[in-house]
Amino acid sequence: MEHKKTNYTQEELENNWVSRFDKIKNKAIPLMFIDSIVPGHNRLNYAVIGDTASENENYNPIITEPHGFQIGMVKAPKGNGPAYHTHEYIETFFVLTGKWRFYWGNTPEKVEGEIILDEWDMISLPPYMYRGFENIADEDAWVFSILEQHDVFDRPDPIWDPKVVRKGEEYNFNVDKKGKMIPPENFSELEKEMASKLKMGEK
Ligand SMILES: [Fe+2]
Q1: 99-143: per-residue pLDDT in tens?
Q2: How far is the CA of 184 from the centre of ligand 1 (A)?
Q3: Domains in the chain, start-ordered, CATH in brackets?
């Protein structure tokens, strides 16, 4: 087998292949999805590696070199996390801090079970299975996600439980047919408020 030689430099590695929390801590997305504004689903999303299923177009992954997967990070306060949804691809979560409850079902209508994960536990969720999760620790807590390679802004993704879409609409958050958020007029104010409420910049 041919052994391909690389010629990276220290500088390239540091600039293009490293994500340092200190540099990205203030670059979270406070309203990445239509549910992010809804109480119980508030969270900060960090796009670490690669483009992904964000309804908010306004975000830049830290590492943009092509990868066969996407990595994101989430911080949520107690009792908050992503609402019930699914994807066409595998989504894996690794708990960095705290305790998280993952609930799941085969259809959007019914939750069929739950899995509680502690620090350093991991769960991998199959394509099309509905899932939601929340931080059940007392403090703010962190998870990171690994998403299988997938199309971006091609069609709605995440695929929400219709009840979640209606809830988002109550807060004037909608998505178009391609899965892009149609934000309310006061979007930037709402984002600032959410960033401050969720203590962006702090671990
Ligand atoms: Fe997801």
Answers
A1: 999 999 999 999 999 999 999 999 999 999 999 999 999 999 999
A2: 23
A3: 21-197 (2.60.120.10)
